[in-house]
């Protein structure tokens, strides 16, 4: 049978998108998969051999968790398995509708502006007035939030709230089309407001220049009709989900992106599942890189963000078939779209029949990461910080200043680069290259297991994982270069490009 491998796990299958496996059951096929690719086992199964809760497996279009025999479900060579790790009929409107008499009226200028909407019978005058009355909160004004907010503003949403506390960086402009070269260095909420008001001067923009946290989320979100989640970190994603449920099933138009792939759905409505129904717990820190670490096709967030905007409009108007109870998978390289069925989990700790999460929690702790301090909602690292301690998980940390001082003194330790080949072409320190996904298999190439090996990557997260892998393989003197090649370019050799 064919097993579809998601992008974050392809490093462990030699970058293969699909793998052939056989087995009488789903479990047998998965066992053959991890036997053929041993490094996958720890990412799919826990130490006791159970499928991890942040990994979903679909047999054709059915989530095996809801099949009677689960992993023991019979399978044939004609079936397909799809691994979905977290990255994130007609339904009535999920937004409480005001009486028609209470809806705001449209001016002559607005009737002219929205005329293409007004001649759609599914929208019409009443629908456009609903859009004008609506309040939508965009969590994040980055890759997803940019096209999302722009199209909502163009469509005539009356009030758009923006949550972000980051500033515009030149590297954002490859995908975050709500910002411009002229606004580099400005607060993202201020930059976004300039573009949105330029597009639609009558729009009411509410700026929340802050990080969304457990302390402020309910207060910020309570007055909005729909929440649009444009984050790319798990702690904010779980926070948004839980807050939406606790606020009485406030619809959450969800989107996520990674490299060339995206996901979209609508969570937290009364009749549908929430994000925790799909992913009860987050993946370990570092398993799924952020866009800053793994990259993203600049056009992809436009595609997924527009899908989110479409769902928001449908929810407000109460038209069409929304993505409630469905997960849309987007593959930009293959230009293919696939929809999988989602089910409300009666045992969900947030939206289930007997919820155990009845208040917002510490989501940084829940996701196992250090509390962010300097990055906005879209750029918060999902990797555990490793640079502030001398030893992390048994791996000594070495600063770029210390390494440079040693080199200047004539010491030439062996340095290993564990980034990907395409990253090496952008900038390198001249060190030999073994990508992280190949380190365990190619460790024999490193020779003496007692020699000192200093490992680096882009920022220090992947190199930490590589160091742990080498230590587990018997290497006795491995160190992690804190901050990676970015720190080297910042502090040692400022002529090097940063990416």
TrEMBL record:
Pfam families the record matches: Rhodanese (PF00581), ThiF (PF00899), ThiS (PF02597)
EC number: 2.7.7.80
Coiled-coil ranges (or none): none
Residue ranges of every copy of the Rhodanese domain listed in the record: 409-497
Cellular component terms per the entry's GO annotation: cytosol
Gene Ontology molecular function, alphabetical: ATP binding; molybdopterin-synthase adenylyltransferase activity; sulfotransferase activity; thiosulfate-cyanide sulfurtransferase activity; ubiquitin-like modifier activating enzyme activity
Reactions it catalyzes: [molybdopterin-synthase sulfur-carrier protein]-C-terminal Gly-Gly + ATP + H(+) = [molybdopterin-synthase sulfur-carrier protein]-C-terminal Gly-Gly-AMP + diphosphate
First-level EC class: transferase
SUPFAM superfamilies: Activating enzymes of the ubiquitin-like proteins, MoaD/ThiS
Keywords, ordered alphabetically: ATP-binding, Nucleotide-binding, Nucleotidyltransferase, Transferase
Quaternary context: Homodimer. Forms a stable heterotetrameric complex of 2 MoeB and 2 MoaD during adenylation of MoaD.
Protein family membership: Belongs to the HesA/MoeB/ThiF family.
Its job: Catalyzes the adenylation by ATP of the carboxyl group of the C-terminal glycine of sulfur carrier protein MoaD.
PANTHER family attached to this UniProt entry: ADENYLYLTRANSFERASE AND SULFURTRANSFERASE MOCS3, UBIQUITIN-ACTIVATING ENZYME E1
Protein name: Molybdopterin-synthase adenylyltransferase
């Amino acid at each position: 049978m064919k097993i579809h491998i998601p992008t974050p796990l392809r490093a462990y299958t030699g970058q293969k998108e699909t793998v052939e496996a056989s087995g009488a059951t789903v479990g047998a096929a998965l066992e053959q998969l991890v036997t053929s690719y041993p490094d996958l086992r720890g990412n799919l199964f826990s130490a006791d051999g159970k499928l991890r809760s942040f990994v979903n497996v679909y047999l054709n279009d059915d989530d095996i968790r809801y099949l009677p025999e689960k992993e023991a479900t019979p399978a044939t060579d004609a079936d397909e398995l799809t691994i979905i790790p977290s990255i994130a009929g007609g339904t009535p409107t999920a937004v409480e509708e005001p009486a028609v008499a209470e809806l705001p009226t449209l001016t002559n200028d607005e009737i002219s502006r929205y005329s293409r909407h007004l001649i759609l019978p599914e929208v019409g005058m009443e629908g456009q007035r609903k859009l004008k009355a609506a309040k939508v909160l965009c969590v994040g004004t980055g890759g997803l939030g940019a096209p999302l907010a722009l199209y909502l503003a163009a469509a005539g949403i009356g009030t758009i709230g923006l949550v972000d506390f980051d500033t515009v960086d030149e590297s954002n402009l490859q995908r975050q089309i709500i910002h411009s070269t002229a606004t580099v260095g400005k607060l993202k909420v201020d930059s976004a407001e300039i573009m949105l008001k330029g597009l639609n001067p009558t729009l009411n923009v509410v700026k929340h220049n802050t990080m969304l946290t457990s302390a402020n989320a309910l207060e910020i979100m309570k007055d909005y009709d729909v929440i649009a989640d444009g984050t790319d970190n798990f702690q904010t994603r779980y926070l948004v989900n839980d807050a939406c449920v606790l606020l009485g099933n406030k619809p959450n138009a969800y989107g996520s992106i990674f490299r060339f792939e995206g996901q979209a759905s609508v969570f937290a409505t009364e009749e549908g599942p929430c994000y925790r129904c799909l992913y009860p717990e987050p993946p370990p820190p570092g398993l799924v890189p952020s866009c800053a670490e793994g990259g993203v096709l600049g056009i992809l967030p436009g595609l997924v963000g527009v899908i989110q905007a479409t769902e928001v409009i449908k929810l407000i108007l109460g038209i069409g078939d929304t993505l409630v109870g469905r997960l849309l998978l987007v593959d930009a390289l293959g230009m293919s779209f696939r929809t999988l069925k989602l089910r409300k989990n009666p045992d969900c700790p947030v939206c289930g029949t007997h919820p155990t999460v009845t208040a917002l929690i510490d989501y940084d702790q829940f996701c196992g990461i250090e509390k962010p301090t300097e990055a906005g909602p879209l750029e918060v690292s999902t990797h555990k910080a490793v640079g502030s301690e001398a030893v992390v998980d048994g791996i000594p940390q070495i600063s770029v200043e210390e390494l440079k001082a040693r080199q200047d003194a004539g010491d030439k330790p062996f340095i290993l680069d564990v980034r990907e080949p395409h990253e090496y072409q952008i900038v390198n320190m001249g060190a030999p290259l073994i990508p992280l996904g190949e380190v365990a298999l190619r460790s024999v190439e490193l020779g003496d297991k007692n020699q000192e090996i200093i490992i680096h990557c882009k920022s220090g997260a992947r190199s930490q994982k590589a160091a742990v892998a080498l230590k587990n393989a018997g290497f006795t003197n491995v160190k992690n270069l804190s901050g990676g090649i970015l720190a080297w370019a910042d502090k040692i050799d400022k002529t090097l490009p940063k990416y």
